[in-house]
Design a protein that fits this description.
One of its GO terms (molecular function) is metal ion binding. The chain starts with 17 loop residues before the first helix and ends with a helix. It is an alpha/beta fold. The protein has eight helices and eight strands; from the N terminus they run H-E-E-H-H-E-E-E-H-E-H-H-E-E-H-H. The protein has one domain: 3-Layer(aba) Sandwich (Uracil-DNA Glycosylase, subunit E), CATH 3.40.470.10.
C-alpha cells in the first residue's frame, strides 16, 4: 500500500507575505524529502518583482548554502538575464520543490529529478509565493517548473517561446517556458554551448520589460 503524502498545505500560512512564507517553510513535512536534505531552500530576490523565475529543485550546493541558484547554473542564469536585458537583482527566484532530492553515489550526492508527487506536495508553497509577489510574468526553467506553474505536463522543446498564461490574482499572468540553465552548463566547453546559451537568452527576452 502506498503511503499517502500529506502535501504542504497545512504548513503554509494563509495570506502570508514572502517573509512569512520563508519563516514557515523550514517546518514543512509535506513529503519525505525534508528528512535527508540539509535544509529547506526557499527563495531570493524582490518580493515585488515583475519577473518570477521558477526552477526545479535545489542542487547540492544550494542545499548546503540555503539559497537557490548559487552554483554554476546560477552563474549561467545571471549572465543570460543580463544579456536579455533583465536585472538579476530585480527578479524573484524560487524552485518548484524546496528540498534537494538526491541519491548517494559513493560519498557524492547526485541530483535525482523530483517526482510528480513531490511537485504536487510542494505546490502550495509556490502558489502562495506567486500570490504574494503578484508578478507580471513567470519564467519556468525546465519541465518540472513548467508542470508546477501550468498544472500539466510540458515539453520544453515544443512550448518554449509560445504565448502561455496562467490565472493570477490580478488577471492572467504571462508564462515563458525555457530550458533549465543546468542543461546549458552541461555543454560548457562542448559544441552547442553558444547556441544553447543564445536560445536561453532569446527565451528570457520574452520576459524583459
Amino acid at each position: 500500500m502506498t503511503e499517502e503524502r500529506p502535501g504542504a498545505q497545512r504548513w503554509v500560512p494563509p495570506e502570508a507575505d514572502v517573509d512569512g512564507l520563508r519563516a514557515a517553510a523550514p517546518g514543512c513535512r509535506g513529503c519525505e524529502l525534508w528528512a535527508d536534505a540539509t535544509q529547506v531552500v526557499f527563495s531570493t530576490g524582490s518580493d515585488r518583482a515583475r519577473v518570477v523565475l521558477v526552477g526545479e529543485q535545489p542542487g547540492d550546493r544550494e542545499d548546503r548554502e540555503g539559497k537557490p541558484f548559487v552554483g554554476p547554473a546560477g552563474r549561467i542564469l545571471d549572465d543570460a538575464l543580463e544579456a536579455a536585458g533583465i536585472d538579476p537583482s530585480g527578479v524573484y527566484v524560487t524552485n518548484a520543490v524546496k528540498h534537494f532530492r538526491f541519491q548517494m553515489r559513493g560519498k557524492r550526492r547526485i541530483h535525482k529529478t523530483p517526482g510528480v508527487a513531490h511537485v504536487e506536495a510542494c505546490l502550495p508553497w509556490l502558489e502562495a509565493e506567486l500570490a504574494a509577489v503578484r508578478p507580471g510574468v513567470v519564467v519556468c526553467l525546465g519541465a518540472t517548473a513548467a508542470r508546477a506553474v501550468l498544472g500539466r505536463e510540458v515539453r520544453v522543446t515544443a512550448e518554449r517561446g509560445a504565448p502561455l498564461s496562467r490565472p493570477g490574482p490580478d488577471g492572467e499572468v504571462r508564462v515563458v517556458v525555457t530550458t533549465h540553465p543546468s542543461a546549458v552548463v552541461r555543454l560548457s566547453g562542448k559544441p552547442g554551448f553558444d547556441e544553447a546559451f543564445d536560445a536561453l537568452v532569446a527565451d528570457l527576452r520574452l520576459a524583459a520589460p
